[in-house]
Amino acid sequence: xxxxxxxxxxxxxxQLTRDRGLAELFPPISRFCTVSCHLKSGKIVAGNxxxxxxxxxxRAGKLHTTQAHRHGAGCSACAFSPDGRHVAxxxxxxxxxRFFQLSAPTLFNMGSSHIKTGKQFNVSPSLQGRSxxxxxxxxxxxxxxxxxxxHATFQP
Length: 156
Known about the structure:
The chain has 3 helices and 11 strands; from the N terminus they run αααβββββββββββ. The chain is mainly beta and 156 residues long. A hairpin with a 2-residue loop joins β10 and β11. InterPro entries: WD40/YVTN_repeat-like_dom_sf, WD40_repeat_dom_sf, WDR72-like.
């Protein structure tokens, strides 16, 4: 998935991507619950099958990868908070939700943003084999959604 997003960002005009967002320019990408775009901050996050998250900074043209879940426990869903300062990641294999905090760039780190691992919560009962999405229902609460409705809610 990372390669696909990198290719899309390379092919699409940078300013257009920043102004309109990846989901509007390439609608099929929004069907993947492992991809989330925060237009205001100019960032995209994508999860993969081996538990990694890739953070793409559209403005700077940079990529940062981090291990979000146990190696081999795939990322089932991820989502930006409404303010773009947090990312929630779900692993249905490990049955956990993990939060990441994106700090604002400072003068000394010259425009790069830092990613801090935050709280982790176990999800019960098991979600393995179920289709899930993450949806921020307010600025501080993310919900794990299954086809039958809200499964659980968590706060970073």
